[in-house]
Amino acid sequence: MARPDINRSGEIEVFVRVVEAGSFSAAARELRMTPSAVSKLIARLEARLGARLVSRSTRRLQMTPEGTAFYESGLRILADMAAAEREAAAGAAPRGRLRVNTYVPFGVHRLIPLLPRFLERYREISVDLVLTDSVIDLMAERADVAIRAGPLGESRLVARKLGQSPVVVVAAPSYLEANGTPRTLAELERHNRMGFGFVRHIDGWPFVDAAGAAVIIPITGNALVGDGEAMRLMTLAGVGISRLARWHVAPDIAAGRLVPLLEEFNPGDEEVTHAVYVGQGRHLPARVRAFLDFLGESVRLT
């Protein structure tokens, strides 16, 4: 048979039930306790307080002056506890401003198209979105979640993998018409290989040669860009050749706007995307947990 833990709030609740029910037995039925257990609990409460709270000289319990004062105080305490629980439950619900920082291709092609559905599901969340391929300090930028591609460095931050995609070398038909199509790694070295203006994990493009040996071809083109979407647009414009995640350029390849190159020398490496954030478990704000779970169910990178 269930009984409340013997603590101050539990004692107050039992005492209030006894007063309102008018007897130990009636309160016991409501609390799913035995009448003797209720009687003993009230006796322990009176002993701890050093005051009699109810008179047991009649069939119906009567409160002493001390009991009346304790009952009124007890009602206020229980009401305050209920209000505190409601406030805590409201605070635990997904709500408030969600600050998200994402690398540009993911933001443009994956996240922004999903935001209407996310905001419709969580009407009390507002999104503060920043798109940049630069690595940021979550604490300094006050971001809740950063979405990044590539290897993760050592950090006390928590990461959740969102997906991975093969990497492909591509060029626009207009560029290939004007400059020829490279068929070998040696021919590639004569082409305009565009790069990024920030530090990358590997300073060059990895390939495997005809013998299966790993080869890194440096980036020596005449164009540097600050984010992957700008790189895609430069490639579409025919400026040069680029190396991007296949998910990012798959629609362009399917439509013939970009052409994959040197696939037989592709080492098969993949670009991994993570959502990085501070905190975990019960310490993770509900708005952040809701966003991470939504990304997990909605994002597909191939």
From TrEMBL:
Protein name listed in UniProt: Transcriptional regulator
Domain of life: Bacteria
A Pfam entry, by short name: HTH_1
Entry keyword DNA-binding: yes
A GO molecular-function descriptor: sequence-specific DNA binding
Family matches, as Gene3D superfamilies: 3.40.190.290, Winged helix-like DNA-binding domain superfamily/Winged helix DNA-binding domain
Family stated for the protein in its record: Belongs to the LysR transcriptional regulatory family.
GO biological process, one term: DNA-templated transcription
Keyword DNA-binding: yes
Boundaries of every HTH lysR-type domain copy: 12-64
Entry keywords, A to Z: DNA-binding, Transcription, Transcription regulation
